[in-house]
Amino acid sequence: MGRVRNRLATARPPHRELRHALSSRRVTAKFGLRKRSVGRSVGLPSGRPITRCNRRDGEAYPDVRVVLPAHANPAVRAQVERGLAGVARVTITDPLPYPALARLLSHAYLALTDSGGIQEEAPTFGVPALVLREVTERVESLRAGCAKLVGTDEDLIVSEAARLLDDPVLRRSMTAGGNPYGDGLASRRTEQAVAALLGLAQIPAPMPTSASLV
């Protein structure tokens, strides 16, 4: 998995706007635009905490570039573009294929997301995630400390993001324990176990426990 991940992370991103954004000193990736979130978990169209947070981040941190992959739904995209019109250092992209997504995460300083999939992917790249939901089924990432549930309150999102942007030590501590969803060695362990069952190799060492991964 490590070799595949590194290849994906170093692949040339196909989107020109994404290539430009990744040249910034610090990149904050925001994934909060699922169609089912509109009008509910991201507060559109009334609250728009995502768009307002982007504005506030841009004003407070001139070295930060926000990259926001938009939903394919044109109505969602239109709301986002209206809310972020005129905001500097914000890049809105089309939905990203996985290689480009991996490239983005490999450059990200921080991820803000309502996606369970991003919660699983971000710690692989050493990126802490702030989860823009009131509840999440990915509780392993919360227990491991690599993700934090912040809900949809604008002030709380901004303050928690600011803590990580202001404190590199705090950021590193969130992902120091690795990815609680796996270390990428499952296929190797399977091969070793099958070989042991066939009498072709010694029994492999026990897998690490969940407690040892945290």
List the helices and strands and how they pair.
Blueprint: H1 2-10, H2 16-21, E1 26-31, H3 49-60, E2 64-69, H4 74-83, E3 90-93, H5 98-107, E4 108-113, H6 116-121, E5 129-131, H7 139-144, E6 147-149, H8 154-166, H9 168-174, H10 186-197, H11 210-213
Parallel strand pairs: 1-2, 1-4, 2-3, 4-5, 5-6
Helix pairs in contact: 1-5, 3-8, 8-9
Search tags:
single chain, 214 residues, alpha/beta, six-stranded parallel β-sheet, 11 helices, 6 strands, 13% strand
Description:
Strand 2, helix 4 and strand 3 form a beta-alpha-beta unit. The protein has 214 residues and is an alpha/beta fold. A six-stranded parallel sheet has the order 3-2-1-4-5-6. Helix content is 44%, strand content 13%.
User: Which range best describes the helical content: under 10%, 10-25%, 25-40%, 40-55%, 55-70% or over 70%?
Assistant: 40-55%
With helices defined by DSSP (H or I, 4 residues minimum), what is the helix count?
A: 11
Q: What does the largest sheet look like?
A: 6 strands, parallel
Low-confidence stretches: 8-14, 35-47
Instruction: Give the C-alpha Rg.
Output: 19 Å
Secondary-structure content class: alpha/beta
Total strands: 6
Distance between the termini: 20 Å
- Cα shape: elongated
Q: Which band does the percent of strand residues land in? A: 5-15%
H/E element sequence = HHEHEHEHEHEHEHHHH
Q: Reading side by side through the largest sheet, how are the strands ordered?
A: 3-2-1-4-5-6
Averaged pLDDT: 76
